[in-house]
Specification:
The complex is a heterodimer of chains A (about 350) and B (about 270). By secondary structure, chain A is of the alpha/beta class. Chain A has 12 helices and 15 strands. The longest helix of chain A is centred in the middle third of the chain and has 21 residues. The radius of gyration of chain A is 21 Å and the shape is globular. Chain A starts with a strand and ends in a 6-residue tail after the last helix. Chain B is of the alpha/beta class. In chain B, the strands form 2 sheets. Chain B has a 7-stranded mixed β-sheet, with helices on both faces. In chain B, strand 1, helix 3 and strand 2 form a beta-alpha-beta unit. In chain B, helix 2 crosses helix 9 and helix 5 crosses helix 6. The chains are: A alpha/beta (about 350), B alpha/beta (about 270). At the A-B interface, helix 3, helix 4 and strand 9 of A face strand 1, strand 2, helix 4 and helix 6 of B. The structure holds thiamine diphosphate (TPP) and iron/sulfur cluster (SF4).
């Protein structure tokens, strides 16, 4: 029997963390995601023995994650935009040391202290680096509370499969809104000891060293080449996206996260006006579904693409790369915590593609 | 007998006696198993090498090599994991105690220690250090205080003495504008989370013996789960102090130790033990 619950996004995510068999959470409060730490503090340890620790800062949190992840355990943190900025040093180290972990970013409006209202202003930071050096995180973008839940488990799986940090990138509204969710069964805590983990060296193996330091340039380049090869493989195997009514659309809306749902509503409104609008939603932001979008953009019927985001135009750069001039790409963005409405998106479609639509 | 034949004779004698002399009963010192054969990169006379050796000896003597995880710093000891034959993680500058916290929390039965210089622990990592101590994590922090940033070429550290020259205090540390040296061990000793705090040195054989004792005690205390052990080792940096090793050790004795007096700053209450 399906067990459906009405739950706030952040709490549903925290519940999924416990059910994933997570070993340790280290975090620091910041709106709009403090419920993750609060929920885990109340629930996690008594249910599974999971470690939940409120650190003194985001800098400390991510480094605690590094330590725990190095022992081969399921370790994670969560934060929101300014806190994630503080974690960038640690994320770069974790990526280079090839440790699996989950980092949840429930984004708020910036730059600076900004606003606690929802935003998608951290796309670049999540997808294009953020910290120093050439590294990538796998970035998953849920658009429902259900996906907040499902992506937690998926994140841990991907993190261990690729020995790489995974970021679950949601906006503040997804963290705060309540929706119906179905949970997966409680998973047992992992008992397998990873061969690379620093858990104490038995007599019969070499010591395990977790480091991101490779002082010789040729060695460092070798590490970089290895990482790039891994990212290439991730691009081949882990692309996830959703394309709704895109095949014979007049206009395609591209959007991620919550905004993709607003775009679906806008597409319905457009249908009533006789305009065929499809919605293309990347579920993985790295790896980005370039090829799928490229194919769709060569449809002869297509008048163009409108990319909608809660930022000044960040994912639209990847949309343009995918489209590569095959069709017109327009952008509509809201910032500072303002959420675009479906009517507003429809009006933008009509405005940008005036005269070309029936 | 001339010198040459004396030498030859003694070599012959030595060869004849080899079997007798080289026997287990006569072994006075062996390289600890926890110390690898890798030649260390430290400058001649530097205290880091001695401190590493002490940690390796203690781990050997306590038989905890398979149960110990160490955290290396950013600083001259960044390669500590090349010399210690145990599982180790290398941390970002200053973050070693947070990394050690992460390890210890998920592996509470294991022995966890961090090894950090003064720039690492007392400058960029002050927050992590204070809070790790305050939470009373059951780990050992080995704090090497050489009064300077060694690795980056001799800049001023929080522990640089008043008037002491460095590349960023070329006229000597002016406490009016650069602040006073930070006595970190004194600070952490006041925190209830710290179970044992002591200041040692490795400049003389006697001090080396005391430092080893402090490290041994700390690992033994870790089994009790009573809080953090903090071992400061006042050390030298002959290269950046621009001295020979023996001058550096003398300078340490005359200048560092009056400011950073040796001795236990916090000892476990006997009843608690
Ligand atoms: C974030 C960051 N800032 C600065 C540095 C450069 N850095 C490397 S070692 C070091 C100083 C280390 O000094 P200390 O901890 O006293 O160790 P020592 O070299 O004296 O043993 C600095 C500033 C760095 N690696 N990372
Ligand atoms: S620079 Fe100083 S601290 Fe570093 S190895 Fe040389 S003597 Fe030791």
């Amino acid at each position: 029997m399906k067990e459906l619950k009405l739950m706030k996004g952040n709490e549903a995510l925290a519940e999924a963390v416990i059910r994933s068999g997570c070993d340790a959470y280290f975090g620091y409060p910041i709106t709009p995601q403090s419920e993750v730490l609060e929920y885990l503090s109340a629930e996690a340890n008594k249910r599974t023995g999971m470690i939940v620790l409120q650190a003194e800062s985001e800098v400390a949190s991510i480094n605690m994650v590094y330590g725990a992840a190095g022992t081969g355990k399921l370790a994670m943190t969560s934060s929101s935009s300014p806190g994630i900025s503080l974690m960038q040093e640690g994320i770069s180290y974790i990526a280079c040391a090839e440790l699996p972990c989950l980092i949840v970013n429930v984004m708020r409006g910036g730059p600076g202290l900004g606003t606690i209202q929802p935003s998608q202003g951290d796309y670049f930071q999540a997808v294009k680096g953020g910290g120093h050096g050439d590294y990538k995180m796998i970035v998953l973008a849920p658009s429902t509370v259900q996906e907040m839940v499902d992506y937690v488990r998926l994140s841990f799986e991907l993190a261990f499969k690729w020995k790489n940090p995974v970021m679950l990138l949601a906006d503040g509204a997804l963290g705060q809104m309540m929706e119906k969710v179905e949970f997966f069964e409680q998973q047992p805590r992992k008992t397998k000891v990873e061969p690379w983990a620093t858990v104490g060296k038995p007599k019969d193996r070499e010591r395990n060293i977790i480091t991101s330091l490779h002082i010789q340039p040729d060695k460092m380049e070798e590490i970089n080449l290895h990482l790039q090869k891994k990212y290439k493989a991730i691009e081949e195997e882990e692309i996830r996206f959703e394309a709704i009514n895109c095949e014979d659309a007049d206009i395609i809306l591209t959007a991620f996260g919550l905004v993709a749902r607003i775009c679906q509503k806008a597409a319905q409104l457009a249908k009533e006006k006789g305009i065929k609008v499809g919605v293309f939603r990347p579920q993985t932001l790295f790896p980005f579904p370039y090829e799928a979008l490229s194919k769709l953009s060569s449809s002869p019927k297509l008048k163009g693409i409108l990319d909608v985001e809660m930022n000044a135009g960040q994912m639209v750069e990847d949309v343009r790369l995918a489209v590569n001039g095959k069709t017109r790409v327009e952008f509509h963005g809201r910032m500072g915590g303002v959420v675009p409405s479906p009517e507003e998106v429809l009006a933008k479609i009509e405005e940008k593609f005036v005269g070309e639509l029936v | 007998m001339n010198e040459k034949t004396m030498l030859e004779e003694s070599t012959l004698d030595a060869a004849a006696n080899e079997e007798v002399i080289c026997c287990p009963e006569n072994v006075v010192y062996e390289k600890p198993d926890t110390l690898t054969d890798t030649p260390m990169h430290y400058c001649p006379g530097c205290g880091h090498g001695v401190a590493h050796k002490l940690i390796a000896e203690v781990i050997d003597e306590l038989g905890i090599q398979s149960q110990t995880v160490g955290v290396a710093p950013v600083g001259c000891a960044v390669f500590a994991y090349n010399y210690l034959n145990i599982d180790m993680q290398e941390a970002a500058h200053g973050r070693a105690s947070a990394v050690a916290t992460g390890i210890k929390r998920v592996l509470p039965e294991k022995f966890v220690f961090s090894y950090q210089g003064d720039g690492d622990l007392a400058a960029i990592g002050t927050a992590e250090t204070i809070h790790t101590c305050n939470r009373g994590e059951n780990i050992l922090i080995v704090f090497i205080n050489n009064g300077i940033y060694g690795m980056t070429g001799g800049q001023m550290a929080p522990t640089t003495l008043p008037g002491m020259k460095s590349t960023t205090s070329p006229y000597g540390r002016d406490v009016e504008t650069m602040g006073n040296p930070l006595k970190i061990t004194d600070i952490v000793a006041t925190l209830p989370g710290v179970y044992y705090a002591t200041r040692c040195a490795v400049n003389t054989p006697n001090n080396v013996r005391k430092a080893k004792k402090a490290i041994t005690k700390s690992f033994e205390y870790q089994k009790l789960n009573k809080g953090l052990c903090f071992v400061e080792i006042v050390s030298n940096c002959p290269s950046n102090w621009k001295m020979t090793p023996s001058q550096a050790n003398k300078w340490l004795e005359e200048n560092m130790l009056p400011y950073y007096p040796l001795g236990e700053l916090k000892v476990p209450n006997d009843k608690e033990k």
